[in-house]
TrEMBL record:
SMART domains per record: HATPase_c
Lineage: Bacteria, Bacillati, Actinomycetota, Actinomycetes, Streptosporangiales
UniProt feature, compositional bias: Low complexity: 388-400
Region (Disordered): 377-463
Bias (Gly residues): 401-413
Protein's UniProt name: histidine kinase
């Protein structure tokens, strides 16, 4: 067991260094070529010559060339394993057929080439490259073996009266043991390479399945976080907004309220708005984390020029009508909650105009006064429905003249009022002078001493 472990470590170290060095296979081919040349020289020296002695150098040259052709192609294994294996196999077959000899170095090269081709190349060529050697083994030990005609059988079994004379023997060595070994080991090496690659493919497939399962699990978790974010936004944030609105409405609409009660209601409104701010941050984290492609947290939209341009361009593309952005005053950076509320109000107003006044031109106006931000979204459509609460005229849409958020309009208008109130501002909706529909929001500006308390609002008609 220690010897096997040591050999395994040596093989792994050789593979690691061989993979790191581009000349590893060239070095292996060179070493085997030297061994093949030495073996070929020994075989040529002991080979009987039927004709003149001048034929011995020619045979030596032929055996050396065959030995080199059987080993040097290993240098091509990294780039052309099929070519290298075919050349080695063909050379060994030619060497046995022409000179009845095989070198141990050539046999090693065949095993290495077959294993490498089975591991990295096509399966069928790897098996075909090793197929000739079982056939050669059958021919070598059969009754029609050329070795039998050369007296090669006497090298295995002594004859009566002593060993055969030198001219009747093949003193350079019997190639049949090498052929038999190649007949067994060459297909085994090719199959081992194929099995090695199959195991690697199985490991890669298992790793891919594990990665896919992990990605699916992560996708499921992100979807669940997105669902939680939607529920927090649609349910919890809505009720907290109502708490803020009702607390401010109760404080302003209840006559003769003691100062302590008014302070407590004001504290309730402030706490609700702070909770909304924290919830927005939590929703931003959940939604950004649910985005599979988000590597960092993206900022919430606001009143930056890029955000406003993108909003207006999107409205133009969706409606196919004119949408104009008008900026008045000097733009300043406001509280992030105020900017987000203004952006969402403008976004919802543009959506309402596209839904209820298709084809109408829309103006989005932002006016910075220093103490407040005035947002107006006006279209030149037909205006509110005559049957709606806003049919009473512009005064019906003024703050304090309506019936509250529930009956004043649709859910879009209710959401805009809640956003404005949560940011400490107010919103009015109704018919615009000269026709059309107007959404007007007043939000705290940079120089505002405090949040503008929302007042009771009248509905301007359901859009």
């Amino acid at each position: 067991m220690p010897l096997a472990a040591t050999m395994a470590v040596m093989v792994r170290e050789w593979r690691r260094r061989g993979a790191a060095s581009p000349h590893a296979w060239t070095a292996v081919a060179g070493l085997l070529a030297l061994a093949a040349v030495a073996e070929s020289a020994m075989h040529a020296r002991g080979m009987p010559v039927d004709g003149a002695a001048a034929e011995r150098p020619a045979r030596l040259l032929a055996l050396v060339l065959l030995g080199l052709a059987a080993t040097l192609p290993l240098a091509l294994l990294p780039a052309q394993p099929a070519v290298a294996a075919v050349v080695v196999s063909a050379t060994l077959v030619l060497s046995f057929a022409a000179f009845h000899t095989l070198t141990a170095a050539g046999a090693c090269a065949q095993l290495i080439a077959g294993f490498r081709l089975g591991r990295t190349g096509p399966r069928l060529p790897a098996l075909l490259a090793s197929a000739p050697f079982p056939l050669l083994a059958i021919l070598a030990v059969g009754p029609f073996s050329p070795l039998a005609e050369a007296g090669g059988e006497n090298l295995v079994t002594p004859v009566s009266g002593g060993f055969p004379p030198p001219e009747a023997a093949v003193p350079y060595g019997d190639p049949r043991p090498v052929v038999l070994l190649l007949a067994c080991l060459a297909p085994a090496a090719a199959l081992a390479g194929i099995a090695w690659r199959a195991r690697g493919d199985a490991r890669a497939s298992d790793a891919a399945r594990a990665a896919a399962a992990g990605a699916l699990l992560e996708h499921t978790a992100r979807g669940e976080r997105a669902r939680i974010a939607r529920e927090l936004h649609d349910v919890v944030a809505h009720h907290i907004s109502l708490v803020a609105v009702q607390a401010e409405t109760a404080r302003l609409a209840t006559p003769g309220m003691p100062e302590a009660g008014a302070e407590r209601l004001s504290a309730i409104g402030d706490t609700a708005r702070a909770a909304l701010t924290e919830m927005r941050r939590l929703l931003g984290v959940l939604r950004d984390d649910a985005d599979a492609g988000a590597a960092d947290l993206r900022p919430q939209p606001g009143l930056r020029p890029a955000d406003l341009d993108a909003l207006v361009d999107e409205a133009r593309q969706a409606s196919g009508t004119a949408v104009r952005l008008v900026l008045r005053g000097t733009p300043v950076e406001l509280d992030p909650g105020v900017e987000l509320a203004a952006y969402r109000i403008a976004q919802e107003a543009l959506t309402n105009a596209r839904r209820h006044a298709p084809g109408a031109a829309v103006d989005v106006e932002l006016r910075y006064t220093g103490t407040e931000l005035l947002l107006r979204v006006r279209d030149n459509g037909p205006g509110p429905s005559p049957a709606g609460p806003g049919a009473a005229g512009p005064d019906a849409a003024a703050p304090g003249a309506g019936t509250g958020t529930a009956g004043a309009g649709g859910h879009g208008l209710t959401g805009m009022r809640e956003r404005a109130a949560a940011a400490g501002g107010e919103l009015r909706t109704g018919p615009a002078p000269g026709g059309g529909f107007l959404v007007e929001a007043r939000l705290p500006g940079e120089g505002s001493p405090g949040a503008i308390r929302p007042q009771a609002e009248a509905g301007g008609g359901r859009r």
